[in-house]
Automatic annotation (TrEMBL):
<feature type="transmembrane region" description="Helical">
    <location>
        <begin position="144"/>
        <end position="165"/>
    </location>
</feature>
<feature type="transmembrane region" description="Helical">
    <location>
        <begin position="54"/>
        <end position="78"/>
    </location>
</feature>
<feature type="transmembrane region" description="Helical">
    <location>
        <begin position="90"/>
        <end position="108"/>
    </location>
</feature>
<protein>
    <recommendedName>
        <fullName>Stage II sporulation protein M</fullName>
    </recommendedName>
</protein>
<keyword id="KW-0812">Transmembrane</keyword>
<feature type="transmembrane region" description="Helical">
    <location>
        <begin position="12"/>
        <end position="34"/>
    </location>
</feature>
<keyword id="KW-0472">Membrane</keyword>
<feature type="transmembrane region" description="Helical">
    <location>
        <begin position="114"/>
        <end position="132"/>
    </location>
</feature>
<keyword id="KW-1133">Transmembrane helix</keyword>
<dbReference type="InterPro" id="IPR002798">
    <property type="entry name" value="SpoIIM-like"/>
</dbReference>
<dbReference type="Pfam" id="PF01944">
    <property type="entry name" value="SpoIIM"/>
</dbReference>
Length: 168
């Protein structure tokens, strides 16, 4: 089987961004100091959730790309803090079941969507600071296009699951 060579190390970029998000989550849990926040669940439609997540993705793509990914790293760390703090508060007040039924079903595709779009925003840094290969713009554009489609599809799936499954 012939394996198609990728121009970017997508999985490595996504794992690095995941580690940044998890570091923020751990910091959020540590900074909680067992002071429980009141968590109120908002019932939103799948389309409202999708619109919000697409705006986040677009801001990560535009501002993140313009800042060579530094904005993206900051946003992922801060969002990780918020998620870590919120999940730990929910765990302390209600146990693990609401996390299992309310957060995890939509979080996997939604976060993967955000990590994929975030990896696109660090491409300028990768191209100019790390990459030692010759630049092939057509390959770069094709890979980015495929990753954008994948990111938007996962965003839609996450919003659908959150709007239907996670809210009930």
């Amino acid at each position: 089987m012939i394996q198609k060579e990728r121009y970017f190390p997508w999985s490595k970029l996504i794992v690095i961004l995941l580690v940044i998000f998890l570091a923020g989550s751990i910091y959020g849990v540590i900074s909680l100091n067992f002071e429980v926040s009141n968590y109120t669940h908002m019932n939103l439609s799948s389309s409202a959730i999708f619109n919000n997540n697409i705006l986040v993705i677009i801001s990560l793509l535009v501002i993140g790309t313009l800042t060579s990914g530094f904005y993206t790293i900051f946003v992922l760390f801060v969002n990780g803090m918020i998620v870590g703090k919120t999940l730990f508060s929910v765990y302390l007040t209600s146990g693990f079941l609401p996390i299992l039924t309310g957060f995890l079903p939509h979080a996997i595709p939604e976060l993967l969507s955000i990590f994929i779009s975030s990896s696109i925003s660090v491409i300028p840094f990768y191209l100019f600071a790390i990459n030692k290969k010759e630049l092939h713009l057509s390959k770069i554009y094709k890979e980015i296009f495929v990753m954008l489609i994948l990111s938007f599809a996962l965003c839609g799936l996450g919003a659908l699951v959150e709007g239907i499954v996670s809210t009930h």
